């Protein structure tokens, strides 16, 4: 069995917590955290619950999102400063609450004399004597207390003189005027987004069951569950004894367990008519009031959808315009399975109605899917015939399984087979799409547009399978041939431009990619090809991010995401590139939390695309390195190497993975290992500027500043439109630091000027933060003479701590305190190895983990740590790190 446990650690880690701190026995009725079971620590949620200014905290999510476990764990750690109320009838709520408060609060005789008064008055009298702070935790507040009781309780907490907090766990939205608490900044809310497991936490959950699932399988399962905690636990339970769990992440056994849980916890409390309505609505990926009314012959779809969301019935409203709702993928899958078991005629009727609605409202690819599911073969082929340029583009991350599992007959016409191939392509099933395309090619339809449809299918499957050189050659042939714009062959041109631009981007040719993608975007707008326009815009955002044009990247990425949501194409796999562009911009702006969230969203919507997954993993590795989570970074890279070992990855992707490892090794204070990474690839393609930055940084760490200057000089003296301005800024700082070491002031001025110019124009901050006190000292000493950039220089020098500071604005980050003045002296210089281990001590790595990373014994690490403490005059780890920072050793 697996449970979720929250531990007060600096970074989450998974595993048996034999050394966890002693817990408070806790108030009566609080579920006891498991001591011998596997735990997944979630300190970020505990930090949110510990917010001191909040008088009201609402933890709201549907069943199975870990609300009770989280609050029970938090309550146990309050050391007697929290009371717990759960279960029982609403009529006895006040008695249970006042009894719980009495057991935790010393009540004087005069307060006890008020026992004959009603519950609210008695509680108000008791709260006057409550120690500060006191938290009242109400679990399942929808069931244990009525709306009037909750309102009285909230008002009592609001007006109490002591520091009393109210913490509510509920499946929907509590019947309280939350806007008033929000305006007073006394409200903290935790919803599905906060409670959902991350991919890392899901991986830890499966690792605790001794299941070695590859990272893509975990990411795919996490995406289908949307981080739903209980769903992941049930899947782990079902797969625990499976011979090949990676091959069947959602087998029948897991679906049966999930169906039983959702049936009891979500569907059983609903009205039978509402359950019937949801079954018919499960044919659709997304719902609006109009579509729901069409599917179910209702007229109150808007009110029903809003009520279901308020009740926490596994349905969510999209934050984008259009009033779109989505059933949770697992609920949708369970309902659809039940619908097909009960009445096949209802299934076909629902799909036909959905198809008719999408033929009018769009997108046409949804109409195609529903017509095929309804076995309306000729109508489906007609939709493909009319809309193929906007259907045969790429794939979406669909949350439903294959809806067409058999051919219409042994001699199915080619145009019907092509329609089925297009549906499989849209679902990301390129193997089935290629098979169906081969069947259609054996007896093809004559003339156009059949020939163009087949060419488009070949081009799209090659792009999705990562056959980049084949994509380039096929697209070049299409673009070379003359074709009237209105002809079927002419409609291939925007698809060819999109595919060629995407391939060039993956091959590291960002400038060419931007040109082709811009042309594809323009043509798609002119011809109303929504799918092509969204994909081209998303790849265009990625090309801007690759070139370091962060503002253009963010603007373009948001345009693609907004357009996709508005047009019902928000699940396009290509939109992951927009999310990665946002993640890269936030990373370079030093907004690490935002960068992590965007990268996580990209991985969730990757649909198994290995380049998206590799790019997101590399970016998250760099974020881990930036935040001192070196063990996590090492594990993520090791998994990425393992999973990409047999993949036919383009050279730039492999090089990016190697450079990420080099940066990690350098951050660990091991320049020799970093240098070995730089010489590990054998291809002869020109190295990007990032390679020069990493190599220059390695040379600086090795005490060879003159050679570091030589390595990065081409990035500064020969600016090229194809080189990223991001690494131009990093190169400038490497050159400046090298110039300072060699006593060349002109070089310092030039390098720093280049970096500050980029920071001023694009808002880059990470390169300065990563440089620490050495870069800060440069700016403080040189920037006053550089009158061109005083605002950005002043902003950078106001940072509290360059190792951890986070920019609050992409143009001009503001921090409160100045860099601390050294207050200690070093008893004896640290050796090179001691400096390396000192850097590891900043995180939460154990001695054994540090030893494993450095390939030395644990006793050797302990000896070095003792020497570090002695030389710094420290007694504890945190004190040693603080003193080292004071001395600017870190």
Automatic annotation (TrEMBL):
Keywords for the protein's UniProt record, in alphabetical order: DNA-binding, Transcription, Transcription regulation
UniProt xrefs under InterPro entries: Sig_transdc_resp-reg_C-effctor (IPR016032), TPR-like_helical_dom_sf (IPR011990), TPR_MalT (IPR041617), Tscrpt_reg_LuxR_C (IPR000792), WH-like_DNA-bd_sf (IPR036388), WHD_MalT (IPR059106)
Domain of life from the UniProt record: Bacteria
Organism of derivation: Paractinoplanes globisporus
Protein name: LuxR C-terminal-related transcriptional regulator
Pfam families according to UniProt: GerE, TPR_MalT, WHD_MalT
Region (Disordered): 1-35
HTH luxR-type domain: residues covered: 823-888
UniProt signal peptide: none
């Amino acid at each position: 069995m697996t449970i979720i446990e929250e531990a007060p650690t600096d970074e989450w880690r998974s595993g048996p917590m034999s050394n966890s701190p002693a817990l408070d026995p806790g108030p009566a009725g609080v579920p006891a955290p498991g001591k011998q079971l596997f735990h997944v620590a979630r300190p970020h949620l505990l930090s949110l619950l510990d917010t001191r200014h909040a008088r009201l905290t609402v933890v709201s999510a549907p069943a199975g999102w870990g609300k009770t476990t989280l609050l029970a764990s938090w309550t146990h750690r309050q050391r007697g400063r929290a009371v717990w109320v759960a279960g029982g009838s609403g009529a006895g709520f006040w008695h249970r609450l006042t009894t719980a408060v009495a057991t935790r609060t010393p009540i004087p005789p005069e307060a006890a004399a008020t026992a004959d008064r009603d519950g609210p008055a008695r509680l108000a009298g008791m709260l006057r004597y409550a120690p500060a702070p006191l938290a009242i935790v109400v679990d399942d507040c929808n069931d244990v207390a009525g709306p009037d009781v909750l309102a009285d309780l909230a008002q009592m907490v609001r007006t109490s003189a002591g520091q009393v907090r109210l913490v509510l766990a509920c499946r929907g939205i509590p019947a309280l005027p939350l806007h008033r608490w929000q305006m007073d900044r006394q409200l903290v809310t935790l919803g599905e987004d906060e409670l959902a497991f991350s991919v890392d936490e899901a991986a830890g959950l499966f690792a605790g069951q001794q299941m070695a699932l590859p990272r893509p399988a975990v990411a795919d399962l996490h995406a289908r569950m949307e981080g739903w905690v209980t769903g992941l636990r049930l899947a782990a339970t079902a797969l625990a004894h499976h011979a090949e769990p990676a091959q069947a992440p959602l087998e029948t056994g897991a679906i049966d367990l999930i169906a039983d849980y959702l049936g009891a916890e979500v569907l059983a409390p609903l009205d039978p008519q509402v359950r019937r309505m949801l079954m018919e609505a499960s044919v659709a990926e997304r719902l609006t009031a109009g579509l729901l009314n069409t599917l179910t012959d209702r007229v109150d779809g808007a009110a029903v959808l809003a009520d279901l969301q308020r009740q926490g019935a596994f349905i969510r409203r999209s934050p984008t315009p259009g009033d779109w709702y989505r059933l949770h993928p697992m609920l949708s899958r369970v309902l659809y399975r039940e619908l097909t078991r009960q009445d096949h005629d209802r299934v076909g009727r629902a799909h036909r109605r959905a198809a008719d609605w999408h033929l009018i409202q769009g997108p046409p690819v949804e109409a195609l899917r529903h017509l095929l599911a309804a076995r309306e073969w000729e109508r489906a082929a007609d939709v493909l015939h009319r809309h193929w340029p906007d259907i045969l583009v790429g794939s979406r991350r669909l949350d439903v399984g294959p809806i067409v599992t058999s051919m219409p007959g042994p001699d199915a016409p080619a145009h019907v087979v092509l329609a089925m191939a297009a549906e499989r392509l849209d679902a990301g099933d390129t193997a089935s799409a290629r098979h169906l395309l081969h069947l259609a090619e054996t007896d093809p339809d004559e003339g156009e547009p059949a020939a163009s449809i087949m060419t488009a299918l070949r081009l799209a499957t090659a792009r999705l399978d990562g056959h980049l050189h084949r994509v380039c050659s096929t697209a070049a042939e299409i673009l070379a041939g003359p074709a009237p714009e209105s002809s079927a062959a002419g409609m291939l041109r925007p698809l060819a431009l999109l595919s060629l631009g995407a391939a060039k981007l993956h091959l590291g040719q960002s400038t060419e990619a931007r040109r082709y993608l811009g042309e594809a975007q323009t043509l798609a707008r002119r011809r109303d090809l929504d799918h092509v326009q969204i994909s081209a815009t998303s790849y265009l955002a990625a090309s801007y991010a690759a070139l370091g044009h962060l503002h253009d990247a963010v603007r373009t990425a948001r345009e693609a995401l907004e357009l996709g949501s508005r047009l019902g194409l928000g699940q396009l796999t290509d939109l992951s590139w927009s999310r990665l562009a946002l993640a890269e911009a936030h990373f370079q702006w030093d907004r690490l939390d935002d960068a992590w969230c965007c990268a996580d969203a990209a991985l969730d919507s990757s649909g198994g695309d290995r380049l998206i997954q590799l790019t997101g993993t590399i970016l998250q590795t760099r974020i881990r390195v930036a935040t001192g989570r070196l063990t996590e970074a090492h594990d993520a890279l090791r998994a990425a190497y393992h999973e990409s070992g047999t993949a036919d990855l383009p050279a730039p992707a492999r090089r990016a993975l190697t450079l990420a490892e080099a940066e990690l090794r350098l951050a660990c204070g091991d320049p020799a290992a970093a240098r070995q990474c730089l010489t590990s690839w054998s291809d002869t393609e020109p190295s990007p500027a990032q390679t020069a930055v990493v190599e220059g940084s390695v040379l600086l760490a090795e005490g060879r500043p003159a050679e570091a200057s030589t390595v990065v000089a081409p990035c500064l003296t020969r600016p090229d439109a194809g080189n990223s301005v991001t690494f131009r800024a990093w190169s400038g700082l490497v050159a400046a630091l090298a110039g300072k070491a060699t006593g060349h002031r002109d070089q310092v001025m030039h390098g720093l000027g280049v970096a500050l110019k980029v920071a001023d124009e694009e808002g880059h901050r990470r390169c300065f933060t990563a440089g620490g006190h050495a870069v800060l000292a440069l700016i403080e000493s040189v920037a006053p003479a550089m009158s061109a950039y005083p605002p950005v220089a002043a902003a950078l020098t106001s940072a509290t701590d360059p190792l951890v500071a986070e920019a609050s604005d992409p143009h001009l980050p503001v921090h409160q305190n100045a860099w601390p003045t050294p207050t200690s002296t070093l008893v004896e210089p640290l050796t090179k190895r001691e400096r390396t281990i000192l850097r590891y001590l900043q995180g939460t790595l154990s001695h054994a983990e540090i030893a494993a990373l450095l390939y030395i014994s644990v006793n050797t690490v302990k000896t070095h740590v003792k020497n570090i403490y002695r030389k710094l005059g420290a007694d504890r780890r945190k004190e040693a790190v603080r003193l080292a920072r004071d001395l600017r050793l870190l």
